[in-house]
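The following record pairs a protein chain with its ligand, glutamine.
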Amino acid sequence: MNASILCSSIRKVSKLLSNRSAAASEVCKMCLGRIQETKALNAFITISTELARGRAARADERILEGLSLGVLEGIPLAIKDNWNTQDIHTTCASKMLSPYVAPYDSTIVSKLYALGAVVVGKTNLDEFAMGSATVDSHFGPCRNPWRSGLKYKLRKRSDLSLIPDDICTSQRKDGDFYVAGGSSGGSAVAVATGSCFGAISSDTGGSTRNPAALCGVVGLKPTYGLVSRHGLIPLCNSMDVPGIIARTVDDAALLLDCVSGWDRLDSTTVSSQPPISPLSADFDVTNLNVGIPKEYECSGLSPAIKAAWREVADLLASSGARVREVSLPHTKYSIVCYSVLCCCDVASNFARYDGIAYGHRAHSSGPEHPYAVTRKEGFGEVVRERILAGNYFLLKRNYEKYFLRAAKVRRLICEDFRSAFEGGIDVLLTPVTLREPTPYREWTLVDNREHNAVDDFCTQPVNMAGLPAVSVPCHLTEEGLPVSLQLIGRAFHEKEMMSVAKWIERHMDFPLLDFG
Ligand code: GLN
């Protein structure tokens, strides 16, 4: 079997498996091999080799027996390590949960298994999904595959033919690597390297779209309530959503259909929506109303991202779409509002890590209470800071000043989006991040809080409003780093948003990485 199969789409591999041109065990072996070859990127916290082999062998049996197959029969996928899995550790990239194995599978994982998927492992993240680079992980930082020093080739997305290139595939001269984005950096890297065909992530303020953008893959944040959060270890419950990372828009749409729907174990899920896939290959953008929010053109936006943004807007306009500027006036308050709301949720959610019920337990004989020692030892600095801040915001004397005020501002941010869509806009086109991937050393000069203020600027407001959004890779910079753009849709209008994303994907023809 040719190694370029690891650049193929889920549908194509499914076809090869069902007509027996390829075996699931062989595809699984190739993915496990790729995980080893790209191990230096630190995408995985746990590799579930035996479980994956077992599931792949079962898929092969089903195929041979001619049984009816699930849409993901034999397809290797990865899961961010903040989703509970019964047979594999769930660590949240924290020392606190490093010994933890959940007693149940998340709804999303059960659904994937029921459709025949093969889980190859659990992916790296910022501790408890707090971050935007996958740098603050107990298991070490994740590396961006682009210009990482590992050898790769570039393939044309449309026909997988090789693109000749040397500069863009060489390592940085100073030997440093680029951050992968976060917090779902491991999932994005795993997908980009061909270690799996798709990955489940999470998105509270951009954690799916940001790493997908920086690693040159597709990152989908569905409407809040479309996909069950049951089994996702919470960061900020009213903004957390499951995320999907895939190499193509079509694969992301297919995976969304596999995991969406009402779940009795998550009372915030809505009744099942019609499937969105397959997306039409010739979506017509004529008369599509595209909004360009002027507030997203902010200071610090890199020239390459700005240029790509303009280029795609112009391309849509010249193809018949109605592209116009819109205003989302409360955008600038989103980050500060998010920090308050997120920290308040963290303060309350993280009380459960007491060293008794699960996870790390400190053995202290000193004067400090074991609860305090456990939490001091188990949590990293970013987590401890957020717990402290959240408890401060929730003090009786501060509650109205911070929490209630932030909740009101959140409403204003939601209203901004509502008026744009009520004003006739179908999708909003924006940057995802303000800059291209940052070199690791440069990144570590600034703390997590400051990074969030910049990195989440374009992604975070969407979580406030619970809307769907997707990040689509568009260009490589001269240095060979991905530049992506974001589409934001109306609630539960994933089909329309993803169709536009597919249109952009087709026109921009961003290359695929091939580590084979
Ligand atoms: N960067 C944001 C944070 O640190 C968002 C992270 C996320 O979406 N999980 O909270």
